[in-house]
Design brief:
By secondary structure, this protein is an alpha/beta fold. It contains 13 helices and six strands. Helix 1 links the parallel strand 2 and strand 3. The structure holds adenosine monophosphate and tryptophan.
Length: 335
C-alpha cells in the first residue's frame, strides 16, 4: 500500500545575521517539529535580504552561510529537510515576475511591513514593495500546503493566498492555497527595551534583543536590564506588557503556559523573576551556541548541505515553473 503523501511545509527567514530568540521561539522551534513528518523546504532568502539597502555583499555572503549553520544548530537536520540558498535555485525570481503581473499595486502598498519601512524613513526601492510577491513565489514554487510563521507574517500570507487563488481562477487550478500556521504561544516576542515593539535583530538598540549566539553573561545582563511594569506582582496581563513578554520567553523555552511560569514566582519580586528567566534562556541556548560553533567552523560540511539542498529544490522548482509557464501562455522551451 502506498504511504499517505506527506504534506509540504515551507518557511524562511531573511539572511540578515544572527537570529533572535524571537525568530527561534516564533518560528524555527516549530519547524524543527515539523521535519519529522512533513516534506520541508527552508530557503535561505538572500534575495529578500537585498531589499534592505545599503548592505555589504561580503557580509550578506557571510550571513547566508551563518543562517544555514544556525538552522542546523537549532535542530533542522538536513537529512530530514531541504535547506538551500534561494538565489541558487532558478525559478523564484521568474515565478515572482509572473505573480507580480497578477498583483495589484494597491495590495502591496497596503502591507503593514512596507508601510512601517516607509514610516521609518528607510529608502524605498521597488524590491521592498515587491517583497511579498517574491515570498509568494518561494511558497508556490514548491506547492506548499503549510507555512509556519510568526504572527507578523500573517498579512503577507493572506496576500500569498490571494495571489494563488487569482492564478488558479484566471487559468486553471495550479497551486494549492497554502495555510499559515501561527503558534498560539510565543508567536510574538517583544523588544526587551520596548514591549510595544516586536523584538527584531534590525533594532539599533542591542539591549532590546537576545541573539542565539549570545553568551550566558550577555543574556543575564540583557534580561536584568529589560523594561518591566509598575506593580510588583509577576503575572501576565495587558497592563503588564514587559512582564508578559518575559513570561512568554520563558513559556516558549519550557513549553509550559504563561500562568504556570508565573506561578513559579508567586510572591517573588521582579529581580528574582528576571534571574529565573535568564537561567531558562541560558540553558535553552547553550547547546545551540555550541553546535553553531562546530558547524560554522566546518565549511566543507556546510557546502555539502547547501549543494544537496539546492539540487533537490531545483528539481521541484523547474517542474512547477514549466507548468506555470505553459499555463500563462509562454511558448514551451525547446529541449
Ligand atoms: P525575519 O527575521 O523577520 O525574516 O523572521 C523570520 C521568522 O521569525 C518569521 O516567521 C517571523 O514571523 C518570525 N519572527 C521574527 N521576529 C519575531 C518575534 N519577535 N517574535 C516571534 N516571531 C518572530
Ligand atoms: N517575509 C518573511 C519574513 O520576513 C521571510 C520569507 C521570505 C518567508 N519568503 C518566505 C517566510 C516564504 C515564509 C515563507 O519573516
Amino acid at each position: 500500500m502506498d504511504e499517505p503523501k506527506r504534506k509540504t511545509v515551507l518557511s524562511a527567514a531573511q539572511t540578515t545575521g544572527i537570529l533572535t530568540i524571537g525568530n527561534y521561539l516564533g518560528a524555527i522551534r516549530h519547524w524543527v517539529r515539523l521535519i519529522e513528518d512533513h516534506e520541508c523546504f527552508f530557503p535561505l532568502v538572500d534575495m529578500h535580504a537585498i531589499t534592505t539597502t545599503p548592505y555589504l555583499p561580503a557580509q550578506l555572503r557571510k550571513n547566508t552561510r551563518s543562517l544555514a549553520a544556525q538552522y542546523i544548530a537549532c535542530g533542522l537536520n538536513p537529512q530530514k529537510c531541504t535547506l538551500f540558498i534561494q538565489s541558487h535555485v532558478l525559478g523564484h525570481a521568474e515565478l515572482a515576475w509572473i505573480l507580480g503581473c497578477m498583483t495589484p499595486v494597491g495590495d502591496l502598498q497596503r502591507m503593514t511591513q512596507f508601510k512601517d519601512k516607509i514610516e521609518k524613513g528607510a529608502p524605498i526601492n521597488s524590491g521592498l514593495l515587491f517583497y511579498p510577491v517574491l515570498m509568494a513565489a518561494d511558497i508556490l514554487l514548491y506547492n506548499a500546503d503549510m507555512v509556519p510563521v510568526g504572527e507578523d507574517q500573517k498579512q503577507h500570507l493572506e496576500l500569498v493566498r490571494n495571489v494563488a487563488e487569482r492564478l488558479n481562477n484566471t487559468y486553471s487550478k495550479t497551486f494549492k492555497v497554502p495555510e499559515p500556521k501561527i503558534p498560539s504561544t510565543a508567536s510574538r516576542i517583544m523588544s526587551l527595551q520596548n514591549p510595544g515593539r516586536k523584538m527584531s535583530k534590525s533594532d539599533p538598540n542591542r539591549a532590546s534583543y537576545i541573539l542565539l549566539t549570545d553568551d550566558p553573561d550577555q543574556i543575564r545582563k540583557k534580561i536584568a536590564r529589560a523594561v518591566t511594569d509598575s506593580g510588583r506582582e509577576v503575572r501576565p496581563g495587558p497592563d503588564k506588557p514587559g512582564i508578559t513578554n518575559l513570561l512568554s520567553i520563558m513559556s516558549g523555552f519550557l513549553e509550559i503556559s504563561l500562568e504556570a511560569c508565573a506561578a513559579r514566582f508567586a510572591g517573588e519580586n521582579y529581580s528574582s523573576f528576571k534571574k529565573g528567566v535568564a537561567e531558562v534562556v541560558v540553558d535553552g541556548l547553550g547547546p545551540i551556541r555550541t553546535r553553531y560553533q562546530e558547524i560554522i567552523s566546518d565549511p566543507a560540511y556546510l557546502d555539502s548541505v547547501l549543494k544537496a539542498g539546492a539540487e533537490a529544490a531545483q528539481k521541484r522548482a523547474f517542474r512547477m515553473l514549466n507548468k506555470v509557464n505553459r499555463k500563462v501562455g509562454f511558448v514551451e522551451r525547446f529541449p
